[in-house]
Write a structure and sequence with these properties.
With 349 residues, the chain is an alpha/beta fold. The chain has helices at residues 47-51, 58-65, 79-94, 118-126, 142-155, 179-182, 241-263, 280-289, 301-304, 311-321, and strands at residues 30-39, 43-46, 69-72, 103-107, 132-136, 161-169, 187-197, 202-209, 217-218, 238-239, 272-275, 330-337, 341-348. Oxa(dethia)-CoA (UT7) is lined by residues 56, 60, 64-65, 140, 179-180, 183, 241-242, 244-245, 248, 278-279, 282, 306, 336-337.
């Protein structure tokens, strides 16, 4: 019997590292994004491919969701693999060594294994052993929640350099015979490196939830509730799409208003909206609420579909690397997902 998975550090191998900053250290005012990265599986599944699997059409998927294709993790390719690649790319873009990171917060609802957390697995692969590392499960709001948590650590002086990751292999939960859900999801990961700074970065974050909506979007099985004899042990996404759609539009409408108010900013001061990529029609409704034309909105749902926690950081990295988002611009990030959870971050890039 093998006791130690190769991804785990063997006992006693954790290298010594400096203590993380304590409350006694200088507290800098902002958490700033100093690098972004992302990763997508190689395999692409188009709408035409899905037409061969379920009773759907490219026309239906495009007009109802805006999706044309999505990336699907290969057998054996995990959330942690994608998270690791995205994190490596973000560290490289930031010019920061893994050993300098004092906090890793990873948003996911599809961890590699039950424990250790995917954050711990990624930490070891990066060589950031010793820093705080944990996962946040807030479904599709996972990355924006993780960003809010890391921001709070920085604002209280408990972190100076953090890695925030959103990563998912949601297609592992997809029932490929159910056309209502299987056309919607894809796999991917994104990451940012945050640095404590006196220069403006994150102005405000909001994290909200209402567990009363569990019945509209959930995965019914788990370690404690138990698994079933159904295919994939009963692991599958249950969603009442039309109902989720209505609540998402309404909730995001109030969320962006609250966020602007909190930061003391006006709609016209936002340079880019970087929304959760679930449905183009939801994105358009939020843009309309903000009086923003779609050329100021980052859209990747067409190519990535809904990657849950991966969606916002994937869109952000695309926006940065394509040269759309420039230093000094104000970005509004928002997400909505199972729970329900919803979250936002308003920041200067
Ligand atoms: O990220 C987490 C949050 N999740 C979301 O934000 C998802 C929110 N919901 C949505 O994006 C949309 O509700 C969906 C894309 C899931 C569905 O779009 P819709 O416009 O709300 O369609 P619908 O559920 O009202 O279904 C309309 C019709 C139905 O047929 P009838 O009853 O009108 O005859 C469905 O059976 O479309 C049918 N349908 C499909 N037809 C072809 C449902 N799925 C498909 C499909 N292909 N894949």
């Amino acid at each position: 019997m093998r006791l130690w998975h190769p991804a785990f550090p063997a006992p006693g191998q954790t290298p010594p590292r400096a203590n993380p900053p304590s409350h006694g250290d200088t507290v800098l005012k902002y958490a700033r994004i100093i690098g972004t990265g992302s990763a997508l599986p190689e395999k692409v599944l188009t709408n035409a491919d899905l037409e061969k699997i379920v009773d759907t059409s490219d026309e239906w998927i495009r007009t109802r969701t805006g999706i044309t294709e999505r990336h699907i993790a290969a057998d054996g390719e995990t959330t942690g693999d994608l998270a690791f690649l995205a994190a490596q790319r973000a560290l490289e873009a930031a010019g920061v060594k893994a050993s300098e990171i004092d906090l890793i917060v990873l948003g996911t609802t599809t961890p590699d294994i039950i424990f250790p957390s995917t954050a711990c697995l990624v930490q070891h692969r990066l060589g950031a052993n010793g820093c705080a590392a944990f996962d946040v499960n807030a479904a599709c709001s996972g990355f924006v929640y993780a960003l809010g948590v890391a921001n709070a650590f920085m604002r209280s002086g408990q972190s100076k350099k953090a890695l925030v990751i959103g990563a998912e292999t949601l297609t592992r939960m997809v029932d490929w015979t159910e056309r209502e859900t299987c056309v919607l999801f894809g796999d991917g990961a994104g990451a940012v490196v945050l640095e404590a700074s006196d220069e403006p970065g994150i102005f405000t974050t909001r994290m909200r939830a209402d567990g009363g909506f569990k019945h509209l979007l959930f995965n019914p099985v788990g370690v404690s509730a138990g698994f079933t004899d159904e295919p994939n042990h009963g692991v599958r996404i249950n969603m009442l799409g039309r109902e989720v759609f209505k609540v998402a539009v309404k909730t995001l409408d109030s969320l962006v208003g609250e966020t602007l108010e909190d930061a003391g900013m006006k709609e016209e001061e936002i340079d880019w909206l970087i929304p959760h990529q679930a449905n183009l029609r939801i994105i358009e409704a939020t843009a309309k609420r903000l009086n923003m034309s779609m050329d100021r909105v980052i859209v990747t749902v067409d190519k990535h579909a809904n990657t849950s926690s991966g969606s916002v950081p994937l869109a952000l990295d695309y926006a940065v690397r394509s040269g759309k988002v420039q230093r000094g611009q104000n970005l509004l990030l928002e997400a909505f997902g199972g729970g329900f959870t919803w979250a936002s971050a308003l920041l200067r890039y």
